[in-house]
């Protein structure tokens, strides 16, 4: 491929020698575009709920407040959009913290069953609301290399999506599959699945397979970007596979921590 290289000569040191600094301009331009798109997306995403809140508040002030049934509807819209705005801001702060290296990680050996227990607690209310059965299948002694809070957030995001996009009354499973030197933690659902054209893109910020549907469900479009950022910060990777006959299997893979060999008996 054609790569443009910008070469700059910088005077260096007392000897007056020069050092060549080469920047890959193509990459710099690409990152610049990504940044600009992100700022444009953020502005758009923030403006939408603000406009809705404003319009509904104005309607109330113009007289709707005197009709209780109508007032309730307008206030409901105000409340839902304020909540959405709050979630958006909190997700954006998470992303910028992670990207600035300010999300303090303590990488350690984590018991997956312990992490799964906190995840179960965090998602129990969403599961109950959609009558979803949440199953966990993890070998009790399994340990991975990661940060407890980050891994919990990753798995909660994936399970919340599985519950949200999967059918009401469906089943969502959290399963750990041991590999050679890694553990693949899978979140399996029975939802519509992710088409092959979207699979490589769903982890991008603000990428949505079905924008209307996702916004309607209160999604910010940032959940999977957070999943990817946090997992990579723990040295792992993420992906999504289709399931038969339907559904998706979102997975994160982290380094396996082998249990310490028992101390050899003293002779
Ligand atoms: P959102 O807040 O919109 O859910 P995410 O970053 O969590 O944003 O997900 C990005 C998009 O990927 C969603 O808008 C949705 O279209 C799709 N998606 C995520 N998880 C699932 C799933 N389990 N099943 C089907 N589609 C999903």
Protein model, in words:
The chain is of the alpha+beta class and 267 residues long. Helices cover 47% and strands 22% of the residues. It has seven helices and nine strands; from the N terminus they run E-E-H-H-E-H-E-E-H-E-E-H-H-H-E-E. A hairpin with a 5-residue loop joins strand 8 and strand 9 (248-255). The strands form three sheets. A five-stranded mixed sheet has the order 4-6-7-9-8. A two-stranded antiparallel sheet has the order 1-2. A two-stranded antiparallel sheet has the order 3-5. Adenosine-5'-diphosphate binds at residues 161-162, 165, 189, 191-192, 194, 202, 207-210, 214, 219-225, 248. The site of adenosine-5'-diphosphate has 21 residues, from helix 4 and helix 7.
Query: Which percent range describes the beta-strand content?
Result: 15-25%
Can you summarize the main beta sheet?
5 strands, mixed
Structural category: alpha+beta
Rounded mean pLDDT is 89
Strand order of the largest sheet: 4-6-7-9-8
Task: Tell the overall outline.
Answer: globular
> What's the helix-strand series?
EEHHEHEEHEEHHHEE
**Uncertain ranges:** 1-14
Distance linking N and C termini:
64 Å
Ions, cofactors and other ligands present here are: adenosine-5'-diphosphate
How many β strands by DSSP? 9
Number of helical regions:
7
Helical fraction equals: 40-55%
Radius of gyration: 24 Å
């Amino acid at each position: 491929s054609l790569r443009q290289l910008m070469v700059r000569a910088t005077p260096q040191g007392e000897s007056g020698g020069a050092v060549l600094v080469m920047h890959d301009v193509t990459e710099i331009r690409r990152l610049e575009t990504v940044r600009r798109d992100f700022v444009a997306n953020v502005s758009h995403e923030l403006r939408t709920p603000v406009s809705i809140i404003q319009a509904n508040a104005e309607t109330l002030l113009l007289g709707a407040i005197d009709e209780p049934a109508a007032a309730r509807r307008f206030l409901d819209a105000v409340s839902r959009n304020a909540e959405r705005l709050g979630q958006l801001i909190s997700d954006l702060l998470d992303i910028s913290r992670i990207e600035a290296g300010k999300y303090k990680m303590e990488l350690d050996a984590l018991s997956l069953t312990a992490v799964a227990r906190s995840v179960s607690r965090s998602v129990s209310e969403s599961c109950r609301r959609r009558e979803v059965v949440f199953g966990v299948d993890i070998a009790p002694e399994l340990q991975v290399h990661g940060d407890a809070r980050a891994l919990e957030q990753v798995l909660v995001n994936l399970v919340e999506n599985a519950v949200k996009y999967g059918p009401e009354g469906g089943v969502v499973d959290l399963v750990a599959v041991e590999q050679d030197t890694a553990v693949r933690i899978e979140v399996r659902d029975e939802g519509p699945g992710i088409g092959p054209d979207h699979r490589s893109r769903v982890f991008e910020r603000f990428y949505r397979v079905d924008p209307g549907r996702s916004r309607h469900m209160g999604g910010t479009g940032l959940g999977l970007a957070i999943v990817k950022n946090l997992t990579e910060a723990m040295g792992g990777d993420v992906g999504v596979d289709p399931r038969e006959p339907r559904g998706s299997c979102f997975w994160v893979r982290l380094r396996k921590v082998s249990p310490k060999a028992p101390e050899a008996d003293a002779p």
